[in-house]
């Protein structure tokens, strides 16, 4: 997708095949900076610190992290230790484990002296597959947007609400929830996005707003608690969010606050869709509320906030009284009964075991 006048991905191998480059998302929206990762420890730090974030991008970064580990030492015990290091970084997104399992399954079959080249190639294949899946999700979601457009007066804007950032910054390219928006925008359909700020890390206010601006998609940043108000007044036609892990029965774990949006959408009769590439589906789980691990992050993300001063300096200030405790669950689970449908690379499915089995019979 676009950054200024250039087309970018969020992660790409260095020309010397000795490193990987990423966009440092902790610097956005005020500064665009890239980082060079040269070790598996660098990749683990990038995931843990959220220099890269979003379930699909975490998976791709983990794959490249294993390639970096193989380049240093391709023995099986070293790769296993590297995978354990990467797996421990963030617990909720299933793409992380999926990518590591895929890489290890391929590399373990090979003699040691063939593993390095194969690791780089397989990581690149995982990244390319992510781009293709997200583009396909965009096409299927575009059909939904076209259907909404047909029900409105000619030329009227389709208003879409999203939560957190499930755009191209959360993936290798295109995004999941925002891929349909970009496809619609490129097709000349008038679309407008309401982007929840997404406290406490403000991915909507910073990342979603930034990338929509780069693509010149009309958008408005709203506080997290404004979505229900807008839905009540008929100002939202469609909700599309991403997912970090979806059970085989259609329960969805996404950024904290997603469940509340789904409840509002159900009450107001607004369709609520989840863009779910197949690597984000955990076929081993049936009950999302009981079984999906929810990451608990540090309280400083709640008690403080970082922004740009009038002088152009990035500073962090405290929001809460020094004696107040803070809790910071990073995700919540939206039950399948509140999800209108799952937009996958193979089509749109009911949020149910039967619906997913229809699209992915080989997994069900």
TrEMBL record:
Catalytic reaction(s) noted: 5-(methylsulfanyl)-alpha-D-ribose 1-phosphate = 5-(methylsulfanyl)-D-ribulose 1-phosphate; 5-deoxy-alpha-D-ribose 1-phosphate = 5-deoxy-D-ribulose 1-phosphate
Keyword Flavoprotein: no
Pathway in which this enzyme or protein is active: Amino-acid biosynthesis; L-methionine biosynthesis via salvage pathway; L-methionine from S-methyl-5-thio-alpha-D-ribose 1-phosphate: step 1/6
Keywords from the UniProt entry: Amino-acid biosynthesis, Isomerase, Methionine biosynthesis
EC number: 5.3.1.23
GO biological process, one term: L-methionine salvage from methylthioadenosine
Superkingdom, natural source: Bacteria
Name of one Pfam family that matches: IF-2B
Positions of the record's site feature: Transition state stabilizer: 164
InterPro entries, alphabetized: IF-2B-related (IPR000649), IF-M1Pi (IPR005251), IF_2B-like_C (IPR042529), Initiation_fac_2B_a/b/d (IPR011559), M1Pi_N (IPR027363), NagB/RpiA_transferase-like (IPR037171)
Binding site for substrate: 53-55, 90, 203, 254-255
Annotated catalytic residues: 244 (proton donor)
Keyword Membrane: no
GO molecular function ontology, one term from the record: S-methyl-5-thioribose-1-phosphate isomerase activity
UniProt cross-references to PANTHER family, sorted A to Z: METHYLTHIORIBOSE-1-PHOSPHATE ISOMERASE
Protein family per UniProt: Belongs to the EIF-2B alpha/beta/delta subunits family. MtnA subfamily.
Protein role: Catalyzes the interconversion of methylthioribose-1-phosphate (MTR-1-P) into methylthioribulose-1-phosphate (MTRu-1-P). Also catalyzes the interconversion of 5-deoxyribose 1-phosphate and 5-deoxyribulose 1-phosphate. Part of a bifunctional DHAP-shunt salvage pathway for SAM by-products.
NCBIfam families: eIF-2B_rel (TIGR00524), PRK05720.1 (NF004326), salvage_mtnA (TIGR00512)
Name of the protein described by the UniProt record: Methylthioribose-1-phosphate isomerase
Organism name: Defluviicoccus vanus
């Amino acid at each position: 997708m676009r950054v200024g006048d250039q087309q970018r991905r969020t992660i790409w191998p260095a020309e010397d095949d000795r490193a990987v480059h990423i966009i440092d998302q902790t610097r956005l929206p005020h500064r665009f900076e890239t980082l060079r990762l040269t070790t598996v420890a660098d990749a683990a730090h990038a995931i843990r610190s959220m220099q890269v974030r979003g379930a699909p991008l975490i998976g791709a970064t983990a794959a490249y992290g294993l390639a970096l580990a193989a380049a240093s030492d391709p023995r099986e015990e070293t790769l296993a230790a590297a995978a354990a290091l990467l797996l421990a970084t963030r617990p909720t997104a299933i793409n992380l484990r999926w990518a590591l399992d895929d890489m290890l399954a391929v590399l373990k079959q090979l003699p040691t002296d063939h593993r390095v080249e194969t690791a780089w190639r397989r990581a690149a294949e995982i990244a390319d597959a992510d781009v293709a899946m997200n583009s396909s999700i965009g096409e299927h979601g575009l059909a939904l947007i076209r259907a909404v457009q047909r029900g409105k007066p000619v030329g009227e804007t389709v208003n879409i609400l999203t939560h957190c950032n499930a755009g191209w910054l959360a993936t290798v390219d295109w995004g999941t929830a925002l891929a349909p928006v970009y496809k619609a925008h490129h097709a000349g359909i008038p679309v407008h996005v309401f982007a929840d700020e997404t406290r406490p890390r403000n991915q909507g206010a910073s990342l979603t707003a930034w990338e929509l601006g780069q693509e010149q998609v009309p958008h408005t940043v709203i506080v997290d608690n404004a979505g229900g108000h807008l839905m009540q007044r008929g100002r939202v036609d469609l909700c599309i969010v991403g997912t970090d892990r979806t059970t085989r029965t259609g329960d969805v774990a996404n950024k904290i606050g997603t469940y509340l949006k789904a409840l509002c959408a159900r009450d107001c009769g607004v369709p609520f869709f989840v863009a779910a590439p197949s690597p984000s589906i955990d076929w081993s789980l049936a009950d999302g509320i009981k079984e999906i691990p929810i990451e608990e992050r540090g309280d400083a993300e709640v008690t403080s906030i970082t922004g740009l001063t009038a002088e152009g300096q990035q500073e962090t200030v405290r929001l809460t009284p020094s004696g107040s405790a803070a809790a910071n669950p990073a995700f919540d689970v939206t039950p399948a009964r509140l999800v209108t449908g799952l937009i996958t690379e193979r089509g749109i499915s009911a949020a149910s075991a039967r619906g997913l089995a229809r699209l992915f019979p080989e997994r069900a």
